[in-house]
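> forwarded from #structure-qc
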């Protein structure tokens, strides 16, 4: 696709990759027998509204893809979350929301509560060998307990979350485009990462490292592994997400990803 020069078309492609993988993830969890996480997915215009009864975190309870053209749906969206006793959270992408739309959010009691980076790179091969104690392998289907342990302990979740995290990710294993990786240090599982490929775009959807193995470069190795996987899959674009100026953001910049845009999060007071 040539140089990744900022444009409205590129912004829309980045946003679509994030929206698409999250919708697919939520649909897979929703389709578990009995929908144990209480997933609901609603569309209001272009806006995608995600909700989970049992997972209160913003990732699973957010409005994605909304633009200024969806202003007339704001009250219906607010009611959707309030009826479920959840504070609405809106992800606002630059160039897709104008000043009038932001004023409407403020008038309804929402405030800008955070920033989030969407970083991009063209797929490539790094051809750099891993240091001897480290190896990276694709996750086997019977290893989701290991993945979930790293997911929980690497993000500060309690161990009683391991079983549901394993179940909610296992449903993605045979779903088209999803890939999971484990990084080992001296044969001990130390870090994990996930990606999804669709329509020539690879999304780096998650990564975590156990506290005991931080500072060893595992996150960067997993970034490179997934970017190389995107190259081998003939992708034209790789998109990653992280908090602004987080360690993940710095690692992405170090290996060549650059900011595609910084979106804002708006939360009800």
């Amino acid at each position: 696709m040539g140089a990744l020069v900022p444009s409205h078309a590129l912004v829309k492609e980045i946003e679509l990759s994030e929206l698409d993988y999250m919708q697919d993830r939520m649909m897979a969890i929703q389709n578990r027998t009995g929908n144990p996480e209480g997933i609901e997915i609603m569309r209001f215009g272009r806006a995608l509204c995600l909700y989970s009864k049992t997972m209160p975190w913003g990732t699973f309870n957010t409005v994605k893809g909304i633009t200024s053209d969806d202003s007339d749906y704001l009250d219906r969206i607010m009611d959707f979350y309030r009826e479920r006793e959840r504070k609405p959270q809106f992800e606002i992408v630059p160039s897709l929301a104008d000043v009038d739309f932001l004023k409407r959010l403020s008038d309804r009691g929402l405030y800008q509560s955070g920033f989030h980076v969407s970083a991009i790179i063209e797929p490539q091969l790094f051809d750099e060998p891993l240091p001897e104690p480290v190896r990276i392998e694709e996750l086997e289907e019977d290893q989701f307990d290991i993945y979930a342990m790293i997911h929980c302990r690497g993000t500060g979740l309690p161990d009683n979350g391991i079983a549901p995290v394993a179940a909610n990710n296992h449903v993605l294993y045979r779903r088209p485009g999803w890939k999971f990786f484990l990084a080992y240090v001296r044969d001990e599982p130390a870090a994990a990462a996930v990606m999804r490929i669709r329509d020539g775009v690879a999304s780096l959807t998650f990564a975590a490292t156990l506290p005991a193995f931080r500072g060893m470069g595992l996150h960067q190795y997993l970034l490179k592994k997934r970017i190389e996987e995107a190259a081998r899959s003939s992708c034209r674009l790789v998109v990653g997400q992280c908090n602004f100026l987080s360690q993940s953001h710095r690692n992405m910049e170090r290996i060549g990803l650059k900011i595609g845009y910084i979106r804002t999060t708006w939360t009800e007071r």
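QC bot note: The domain at 134-235 is CATH 3.40.630.30 (Aminopeptidase). The mean pLDDT is 96.
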